[in-house]
Amino acid sequence: MASRRDFLKTLPAAAMAAGAAHPLLSWAADQATIRVPGKDGMIVRSYRFLDLEMPVEFMTDWITPANHFYVRNHMFEPAKLDAKAWNLTIGGEVEKPLTLTLADLEKIPVHSVTNTMECAGNGRSGHNPKVPGIQWGKGAVGNAEFSGPSLKTLLEKAVVKNTGKHVQFRGFDPVPGKVPPFVRSIPIKKAMDGDTLVATQMNGAALTAHHGFPARAVTPGWAGAASCKWLMEITVLDKPAEGNFMSPGYRMPNAPVKPGEAVKPEDTHSITALTVKSTIAAPSDGAKLKPGAHVIQGVAWAGEADITKVEISTDGGASWNPAQLGKDQARYAWRLWNYAWNPAKSGDYVILSRATDSQGRVQPNAAVWNPGGYLYNACDQVKVYVQA
Amino acid sequence: MFKRSASLVALNLWCLGVAAVAQLSPNEQLPAGSAQVKAAAACLTCHEARIIVQQRLSKAAWSKEMDKMIKWGAEVDPKDRDALIDYFSGNFGPDQPSYAAPSSAREPQTGAKAKH
Fold it and tell me: What is the pTM of this model?
């Protein structure tokens, strides 16, 4: 293990100099900026460790380019990774433990999945009372095409024993202090569904360092924490992985709890698939609009389910009308939507969006408060003023 | 004369603005206070201050966070614990206005458009 870590160096802060502002977007005007190589106009929730959020203004493309895709790092980001020195081990409850180089992986047939990945904590800042954690707004989510060997293919090569029930991922992000390593597992059924990947590419290009170069797990439709970056070790287990990021991390109470109420670990469950959600990309919250025709637009996603309907209200929820869904679609991908709006008179308007999915789930008016601030999915809302 | 002075003031303000843009530190700072130095020593070895200053937590929640971080390696003298919790809850309590996160610089993709 030590030798594998020798070539890892944490990102030196001095390597990222402060940059000049480019106030081209509303939220960047009159605001100093921080230069993050490879990233364009993101909201900096944290610089060290790097946590970047996509502004909602960018949610108008079906595919999110890598420079706009959110970044969630729990630890330091490995830097100067040597792809030739990298390898991936597959062990645990298998008959034939494997060690694969990047060249080995590249010989295995490639499977591509267009996946909307969302951090479980996306929208945490909307919970009241506030809970600790990165105070994400609406943009810890993105949609990209991930490609690489299917995890099923690799596990079949390793021959999983009958005792193998869960598959654990471990990355090589360096751990600070005594922080437990970022180790999580998914059930064998999800690991073997054919769409769960060991991805080496994102949108047709090699993964960037921020997104897990040279390889990451991609568990489609599930919260981002199931898609471990900088993957180096896959271990088949006879039970779920243990550790902070399995419990108490990334768990939801089985029934709603009140703030401050103690929740027993046995009364919680691990977060898996994402819930139903829509977000308004335009107009921006607080926008002053000219009179006339406008397009309200955004995205909607539902994890492993399909979006069946997005409705828009322009009167604060009193009445709802269907939005038009975009033509681009894929099993785990978000849908673009738009709604033509021609306000009859000037004044203040509250615009809401509400998604419904193929499992019959409907985006609620209020999200379920929980101690981790996870899976916030209340109907999205922007307030605008239409000028006379 | 007044007009010229006003122009100079405007120019100076513009320059200050440019200087502020150029000098923005990527890492956030902890606010002044009696526990600032000890908080920085305990916390900022592993992560930057922005992770702290964006929180809006009750004293009880800060106490819980403090214990978690001590378990994870934050070096806190037991006799400083209460002062640090007071410092965090006083500066980053539930009634404080929300923290405004900065943006990263615009850096559009160059060269051939990435495959979508």
Answer: 0.90
